[in-house]
Amino acid sequence: NAGVTQTPKFRILKIGQSMTLQCTQDMNHNYMYWYRQDPGMGLKLIYYSVGAGITDKGEVPNGYNVSRSTTEDFPLRLELAAPSQTSVYFCASSYVSTSGDRETQYFGPGTRLLVL
Amino acid sequence: AQSVAQPEDQVNVAEGNPLTVKCTYSVSGNPYLFWYVQYPNRGLQFLLKYITGDNLVKGSYGFEAEFNKSQTSFHLKKPSALVSDSALYFCAVRDADTGTASKLTFGTGTRLQVTL
Question: Where does the pLDDT of residue A97 fall: very low under 50, low under 70, confident under 90, or very high at 90 and above?
Answer without folding.
Answer: confident
